[in-house]
């Protein structure tokens, strides 16, 4: 996938949450419809077979529930893309990256080898399955882990055992940590924890630029890797350091230099995106003059940095939809020349299927701690909308995406709006800006109201002065629009899975919380649909008036 990733540590966000976000962009000339679904434990396969690589893997019988945004159409496997589990673990997979020929020669990709001939023939060779890849990662990892660190370990073990047929970056987060994994060849991998006060900007390149092998193979505080990484580097002469003992030691190194690529295509397709994200989040630095430390074609743009201000949902929304605004490289702008305006690949492109911002909030109880801010279609023409993920079902408007173009689907309506508005970007920009402002501001209000109502319900069911909801009085006005919450008495502070009902495997408190969150999601989807239909009407009217065959004179 041709994607862009932004990761933000908990001390670098405005509210102390962890955030991982990624544009899920399809390959050139292809558009992959998306849907938002919940996967209940009974729906999780116990024997998994990859549709692309044909690898088969037996899975344990204890998965948890999780919500994902997979492809809507069959043919390429599940491709879950991004998800959050009921245990408040978030995962986004994948960011397509590249490793160099030296790595591929030392550890080739594990590709599917089709059968040759027919059984019984002298030249018959049976099929040899390939490894695991983007299609599989979330399904194989997310419902089985209890922390981001455990998720990295499980993914690493799967990569070492089954291998992979592609180079990828994978983000895994919980309420405290954000980890980023990069695959190195067919069986090797490295992972780094994003510092709490930093963000990481990743644009389809092997991005890690600093790695401590001693920590990774020791305490693993901030780094992890495949067990034989140091030997792999030594035996295959991958260390490019100029020190006298560089061939005999592997300590701290730059993975980009050892494993990554540096090509002309990177300077058109990848590095400009990292440059723009860091330009936005660290604006006081010189990014544009001839003396600027980093330019759009710099190969050493840092993987992670400390932002000048705490990062907001709106910052992420802007960046993941951005197209080099206020630079000569904006395809919709007036600065520069026609050549500069089409020189670099923007972050928000026509081929985006969905963008999920996965937010895990430390100040809310486990039941409603996680929110997925979701948008479908090309970023400059759509909006992020928040949905709770600890649910058993999702709103039809985002769930039931089909192959047929329909305005009953948020995905298809967003695609239609983008195609209509793009030729007349400036003329439609005010309507799109107001739409985004309305939906996101309503989303903030809606989430705050539901959170408060759940705290109020908890407080009502707890002893005075105790419980997670103590000190959070909620008025009737705060909760009158959230059906099923006011008198539920749900304990959202109870651990997930506590006091399980024998028949369903789910506690009564958990069922009640899910009911409330599903209702809240439906209300948010209803508002989103009304606003999206209104935007479609406005864009259709404006763009119709700007058709090339328009004629102002009429007979009346």
Automatic annotation (TrEMBL):
Top EC group: hydrolase
- InterPro entries given in the database record: C69_dipept_A-like (IPR047804), Peptidase_C69 (IPR005322)
Recorded catalytic reaction(s): these are: an L-aminoacyl-L-amino acid + H2O = 2 an L-alpha-amino acid
Single Gene Ontology MF annotation:
dipeptidase activity
Which keywords does the record carry?
Answer: Dipeptidase, Hydrolase, Protease
Q: Which domain of life is it from?
A: Bacteria
**EC number in record:** 3.4.-.-
Q: Which family does it belong to?
A: Belongs to the peptidase C69 family.
What protein does this entry describe? Dipeptidase
What species is given as this protein's source? Answer: Bifidobacterium thermacidophilum
């Amino acid at each position: 996938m041709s994607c862009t990733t932004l990761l933000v540590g908990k001390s670098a966000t405005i509210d102390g949450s962890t955030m991982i976000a990624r544009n899920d962009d399809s390959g050139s000339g292809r558009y992959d419809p998306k849907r938002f679904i919940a996967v209940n434990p009974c729906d999780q396969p116990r024997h998994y077979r990859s549709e692309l690589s044909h690898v088969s893997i037996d899975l344990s019988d204890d998965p948890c529930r999780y919500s994902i945004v997979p492809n809507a159409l069959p043919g390429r496997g599940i491709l879950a893309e991004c998800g959050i589990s009921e245990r408040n673990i978030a995962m986004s997979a994948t960011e397509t990256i590249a490793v160099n020929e030296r790595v591929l020669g030392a550890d080739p990709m594990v590709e599917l080898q089709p059968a040759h001939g027919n059984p019984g023939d002298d030249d018959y060779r049976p099929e040899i399955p390939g490894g695991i890849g983007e299609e599989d990662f979330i399904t194989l990892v997310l419902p089985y882990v209890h922390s981001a660190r455990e998720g990295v370990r499980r993914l690493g073990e799967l990569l070492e055992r089954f291998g992979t047929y592609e180079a990828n970056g994978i983000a895994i987060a919980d309420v405290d940590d954000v980890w980023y994994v990069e695959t190195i060849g067919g069986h090797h991998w490295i992972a780094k924890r994003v510092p709490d006060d930093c963000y990481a900007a990743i644009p389809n390149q092997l991005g890690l630029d600093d790695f401590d092998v001693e920590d990774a193979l020791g305490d693993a505080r901030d780094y992890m890797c495949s067990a034989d990484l140091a030997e792999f580097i030594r035996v295959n002469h991958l260390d490019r350091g100029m020190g006298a003992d560089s061939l005999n030691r592997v300590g701290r190194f730059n993975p980009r230099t050892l494993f990554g690529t540096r090509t002309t295509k990177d300077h058109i397709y990848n590095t400009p995106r990292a440059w723009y994200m860091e330009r936005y989040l660290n604006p006081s630095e010189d990014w544009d003059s001839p003396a600027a430390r980093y330019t759009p074609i710099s190969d050493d743009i840092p993987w992670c940095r400390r932002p000048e201000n705490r990062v907001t949902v709106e910052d992420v929304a802007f960046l993941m939809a951005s197209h080099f605004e206020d630079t000569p490289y904006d395809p919709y702008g007036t600065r520069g020349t026609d050549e500069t305006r089409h020189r670099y690949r923007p972050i928000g492109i026509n081929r985006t299927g969905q963008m999920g911002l996965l937010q895990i909030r430390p100040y809310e109880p486990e039941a409603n701690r996680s929110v997925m801010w979701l948008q479908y279609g090309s970023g400059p023409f759509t909006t992020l909308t928040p949905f709770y993920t600890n649910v058993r079902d999702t709103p039809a408007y985002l769930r039931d995406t089909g192959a047929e173009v329909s305005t009953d689907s948020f995905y298809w309506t967003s695609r239609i709006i983008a195609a209509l508005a793009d030729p007349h970007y400036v003329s439609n920009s005010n309507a799109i800006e107001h739409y985004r402002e309305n939906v996101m501001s309503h989303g903030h209000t809606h989430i705050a109201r539901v959170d408060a109502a759940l705290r109020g319900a908890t407080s009502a069911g707890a002893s005075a002065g105790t419980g997670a909801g103590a000190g959070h009085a909620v008025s009737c006005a705060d909760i009158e629009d959230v059906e099923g919450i006011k008198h539920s008495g749900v304990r959202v502070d109870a651990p997930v899975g506590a006091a399980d009902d024998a028949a369903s495997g789910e506690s009564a408190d958990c069922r009640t919380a899910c009911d409330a969150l599903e209702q809240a999601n439906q209300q948010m989807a209803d508002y989103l649909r009304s606003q999206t239909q209104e935007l479609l009407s406005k864009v259709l009217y404006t763009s119709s008036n700007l058709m090339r065959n328009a004629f102002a004179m009429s007979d009346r």
